[in-house]
């Protein structure tokens, strides 16, 4: 089971929108039931990354995180979304 941390400023608004899009992406690519998304505020991201496989954040990633980072902004704006999706799929394939 892969742990994906999804962070935004408060852990509620934009992370919820991005979580649904990431869930749809992963399910469409055969990862249904193979991941768990944990939403949090960006201030909690560093501690939540302990043991996580990926951090997706709609803000700048905090320094010193212990897992790979993918920007969640493309899921909000559409700009660069295919590249962000591919990064996520590449990490899931590891």
From TrEMBL:
Residues 3-59 form the Phosphotransferase system EIIB component type 2/3 domain. The keyword Transport applies. Its EC number is 2.7.1.-. It comes from the Bacteria. InterPro entries: PTS_EIIB-like_sf, PTS_EIIB_2/3. It is an enzyme of class 2 (transferase). The keyword Transport applies. GO terms for molecular function: transferase activity. Keywords: Sugar transport, Transferase, Transport. Pfam families: PTS_IIB (PF02302). CDD domains: PTS_IIB_galactitol. This is PTS sugar transporter subunit IIB. It comes from Enorma phocaeensis. The lineage of its organism: Bacteria, Bacillati, Actinomycetota, Coriobacteriia, Coriobacteriales.
